[in-house]
Structure formats: C-alpha cells, structure tokens
Amino acid sequence: MSLATLLLLADGRLPSGGHAHSGGLEPQIAAGRVRDVGGLDGFLRGRLATGGLVSAAFAAAACGDVHRCAELDAGLDARTPSPALRKASRAQGRALLRAGRAMWPIPDVGRAPHQPVALGALAAAAGLTPAEAAVAAVHGTITGSASAAVRLLGLDPYAVHALLARLAPDCDRIAAAAAERSSDPVDDLPAAGAPLLDIGAEHHATWEVRLFAS
C-alpha cells in the first residue's frame, strides 16, 4: 500500500479536468434544492449512496482486472441513462488517462472510457489495490461537488470541509463495500441511480451560460 500514491491520485490538483464539473450540483442549486451547507450535506449523502457506490465498485473492478475494462465501460453506459452524464463521464475519463499516462504506463482501455474505469486502470498502473481505487473514487465523488458549492454559493470553505470530515466514515464504509464486490460479474455490480440528477443534467446541457460543464 502506498499512501502517497493514493493521495496523489485523489488530489484535486491532478490535471484531470475534474475542477470543471460540479457532479450535478449546479442545476440543483439553480432549482433551489441546495441553498446552504445543510442542503449540501443532503446532496453529498445522496451522491455517496448512488453515484459514489457505483463509481467505487467499477473503479475497484477495473483496478482488479484491467482486461475487464471494455465490459465494465459498457456496464456503466447501461447505468447512465442521461446522454449528458455519459458525455461528461467520458470527458473526465479521457482527461484522467492523459494525466495518468504522464506518470505511469497504462494499458489500452480505449480512448475515452468512463471516469471510474479510467480511474481503476490508473490505480492499477500505479500499483494500488481495488480497495484503494474505491477510496479514490468515493473521495472524488463528493469533494468535486463540495468545491463547486463553495464557488456557486459562496459557502464558508471551513464549514464545507467540516462537512467532508463528517462524511469520511461513510466514504470508508461505501468504499469497503464496493471493493468487496470488485470481482463480481458486471451485471451484478451496484446500479444505484439518481433520476433527479439525470434530469438535471439534461436541462443543464441546454444552458447557454453555466459555470461548470456538468
């Protein structure tokens, strides 16, 4: 286990384009569903239980066996009904691979795989375990949206990071549960969905002016 490598992979400063995405938060703020830290708490907990679990499971699976990446990528397509979210995930996957290839030799997993698949392949190339890939995936699921909330709502960054600290045990629990299933068949991996985020993503894609790509 390399904690330093895991921290490098989970670092928000990694040039993977994640800063350009709000994880579906921007349209929820516009709709008035998230207004403050309390609302952000509910949003992030929902993200953890749905997209966080799915992303962690697929990242762990890809890390455990990079030869499954094409199959895993198709499985994520089936779990992402929103074309806008599929496009955003693949854009982030492409950018993540570009950053990763500057650091480690990564096997061919396609030009633009979904972000969790790219993350898993990158974790494997870095010598990390499926459990560590799951932690990185869950961590990224909430920290990106938390950072976006500070920019979109002008929230106190100290309060937002206090929220992230409170959610850390949930991140560990979800990552562990996801990693335990890393060798499951693709059809048996988690498929938790968030229909409101899918709908919001489609509306968000039509906006002429927006701060985030998704």
UniProtKB/TrEMBL annotation:
One of its GO terms (molecular function) is nickel cation binding. It is found in: Cytoplasm. InterPro entries: UreF, UreF_sf. Pfam families: UreF. One of its GO terms (cellular component) is cytoplasm. The keyword Ion transport does not apply. Gene3D superfamilies: Urease accessory protein UreF (1.10.4190.10). Keywords: Chaperone, Cytoplasm, Nickel insertion. UreD, UreF and UreG form a complex that acts as a GTP-hydrolysis-dependent molecular chaperone, activating the urease apoprotein by helping to assemble the nickel containing metallocenter of UreC. The UreE protein probably delivers the nickel. Required for maturation of urease via the functional incorporation of the urease nickel metallocenter. PANTHER family: UREASE ACCESSORY PROTEIN F. Belongs to the UreF family. This is Urease accessory protein UreF.
